[in-house]
């Protein structure tokens, strides 16, 4: 295998992109393997640790090392000779926040340094490392910029003449909405015109930069836009941003965490090529969503609401016009438990028959409606059901869902559950698993539990976990996972 051509090794090692331990072992095999795998190992700075930072510092040019020395910054590294590779040049994903955080950890661990000068020393080191990145990266693909912080400002890339070459092919930008206007005006808006993905986090404590709208307006090929309005009472209007979005957009993701004011969603109507629409709100009136009900989005394949959704009438009409091409539908739960869901559930069963993934909460009296949807959506592979309050219990849902041959993944979401005990007994869980294995012996089932430490979810009973592990060992259950609540898009802000 060591004699494989370089392009073959490249393709093989790409599969190890997320397995840094194995990738590091490949570096040690021989010169050829090292040369190929080291580029992948250093490609994403979001994976860098303190050891990576030490290596980068040893790669700094003498002038940068002199600047560190003049500021009393002495960093010990295990590398005595100049490194074998120009590691900074391999970077394609540059996370300033990650490099900043690991640099601060390194200084804190290696030096007796007063807290009042730690930030300043971190800024000096970060400035020199970023200067090296900008000078040596031929074409950066993704840039992650941290939120505004007076104590630890973002390095000013605009002062580097090499920034134009480094950033001209930038395709993904993750940033805070409060980044200085100068950063957007002087650098990004002047250089980056072909960004395909922009992910913005707005924490609400700083004014939204005027330059951000200008950056959006000059994009020629923007495909994916995400805006996260963080958990805050300091609401800021971002409607002027979304009005600048070009009609090239195919993915739109708006996230609002416990924000008590809303904005009109009617602007979405202009994105006729949308393939994915995610409106993930904790509290919102979905203002003007009814104006989208009669709009056709012929390419739409993914529609997602998280926890809450628009009113059933508006959403039912929307699905009547756009349900046939949907592959994934997440409708959350109606906020009003007394409100009838028959119209919406009927629309799903009639117009969304090509679904592969489906997520919803069903009330106690809606078991028959769940059965109808399962029978109508014959291509369904994954189903997520919400529990708690006046919603169907795990026992009722599992009894019904496990008998459907096409379904290979069941997700139990306890977002709405309260302090009451889980109704499903361990012996009942085992009975469902055994019945599934007997009825559909060749189709393995995956279980996912979505919960937190405060919810009385199925996994809190040790007997349930023992049963699931038992049938994983017997080859009846494919996998089992417990995960917390999250919001799409937020995890990329590293």
TrEMBL record:
InterPro entries: LRR_dom_sf. It comes from the Eukaryota. This is F-box domain-containing protein.
């Amino acid at each position: 295998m060591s004699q494989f051509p370089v392009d073959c090794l490249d393709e093989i090692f790409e599969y190890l992109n997320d397995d840094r331990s194995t990738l590091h072992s490949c570096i040690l095999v021989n010169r050829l393997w090292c040369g190929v795998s080291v580029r992948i190992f250093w490609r994403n700075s979001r994976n860098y640790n303190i050891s990576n930072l030490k290596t980068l510092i040893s790669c700094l040019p003498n002038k940068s090392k002199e600047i560190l020395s003049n500021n009393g910054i002495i960093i010990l590294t295990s590398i005595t000779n100049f490194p074998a590779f120009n590691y900074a040049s391999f970077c394609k994903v540059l996370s300033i926040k990650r490099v900043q955080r690991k640099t601060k950890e390194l200084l804190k661990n290696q030096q007796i340094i007063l807290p009042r000068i730690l930030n300043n020393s971190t800024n000096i080191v970060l400035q020199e490392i970023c200067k090296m990145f900008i000078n040596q990266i031929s074409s950066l693909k993704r840039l992650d910029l941290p939120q505004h912080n007076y104590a630890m400002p973002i390095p000013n890339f605009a002062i580097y003449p090499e920034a134009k070459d480094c950033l001209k092919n930038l395709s993904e930008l993750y940033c805070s909405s409060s980044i200085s206007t100068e950063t957007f005006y002087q650098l990004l808006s002047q250089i980056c015109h072909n960004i395909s993905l922009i992910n913005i986090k707005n924490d609400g404590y700083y004014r939204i930069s005027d330059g951000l709208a200008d950056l959006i307006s000059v994009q020629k090929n923007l495909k994916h836009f995400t805006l996260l309005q963080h958990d805050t009472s300091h609401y800021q209007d971002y409607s002027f941003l979304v009005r600048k979005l070009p009609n090239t957009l195919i993915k739109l993701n708006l996230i609002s965490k416990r924000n008590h004011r809303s904005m009109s969603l009617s602007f979405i109507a202009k994105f006729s090529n949308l393939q994915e629409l995610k409106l993930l709100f904790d509290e919102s009136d979905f203002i003007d969503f009814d104006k989208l009900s009669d709009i056709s989005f012929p390419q739409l394949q993914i529609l997602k609401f998280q926890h809450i959704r628009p009113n059933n009438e508006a959403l039912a009409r929307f699905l009547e016009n756009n349900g046939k091409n949907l592959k994934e539908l997440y409708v959350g739960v109606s906020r009003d438990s007394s409100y009838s869901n028959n119209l919406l559930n009927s629309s799903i069963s009639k117009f969304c028959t090509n679904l592969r993934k489906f997520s919803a909460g069903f009330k106690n009296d809606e078991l028959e409606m769940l059965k109808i949807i399962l029978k109508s959506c014959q291509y369904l592979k994954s189903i997520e059901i919400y529990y708690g309050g006046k919603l169907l219990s795990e026992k009722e849902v599992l009894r019904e869902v496990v008998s459907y041959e096409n379904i290979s993944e069941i997700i139990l979401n306890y977002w709405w559950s309260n302090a009451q005990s889980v109704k499903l007994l361990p012996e009942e869980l085992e009975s469902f698993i055994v019945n599934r294995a007997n009825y559909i012996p060749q189709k393995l089932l995956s279980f996912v539990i979505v919960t937190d430490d405060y919810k009385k979810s199925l996994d809190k009973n040790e007997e349930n976990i023992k049963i699931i592990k038992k049938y994983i060992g017997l080859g009846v259950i494919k996998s089992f996972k417990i995960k917390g609540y999250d919001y799409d898009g937020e995890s990329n802000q590293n």
